[in-house]
Fold this protein.
Amino acid sequence: MSHNIAIDGPAGAGKSTIAKKIAQKLNYIYVDTGAMYRAMALFLLRQGIRPDETEKIDVTCEKADITIRYENGEQVVLLNGENVNGLIRTEEVSRMASGSSANPRVRTKLVKLQQELAAKENVVMDGRDIGTCVLPNAAVKVYLTADVSVRAKRRFDELTAKGENCNLAEIEADIQKRDHQDMTREISPLIQAEDARLIDTSHMTIEEAAQAVIALC
Ligand code: DC
């Protein structure tokens, strides 16, 4: 049986950076489930659908074939065969993903894919509902968080380093809105699983946070 590590938490808590590091150290496969919801969001945006058009999302999401593969240890998300890694990190896609991921059909489709992956391989999987829904029997569960101001500043630094013009207050407001949506939706909202360990990374380095998770393994 595979050994799985579930990492959940709000946007910008450092989940993916930390999960990648842990996967490298333990020689596990890193699965970024947010990227799958983002690929679905990109597909819906391309069809001209808005996050609140539930019925259209119900029908249209069935036409998206989302799979992942690994190239040089990196997760590549394929949307109907197209590598969309370079297209899913925009603010527009972030917003749509937060909205469309509340849709039950979207979730059923992607959760199945995630569970199949975790059954085959030892994975470090990050997302919002991994410890609560996708892998309720994961060997290790972590709820990773940080103050919203710290998360916004990290995102701001990341975008600024890429040469993008951005506004810290706007980023913080956006993160707060997404947190609220992800935490209050009806299906699989973001909450700390009862048996998950809470790690607040506000005052931690990536390395310290990764070590804290590895210590739980
Ligand atoms: O982790 P991320 O920011 O890339 O995720 C994008 C959106 O996808 C997030 O706002 C909520 C949704 N998501 C989800 O509902 N369940 C997951 N397991 C992962 C992401």
Notes: The chain has a mean pLDDT of 95. The first helix runs from residue 15 to 26.
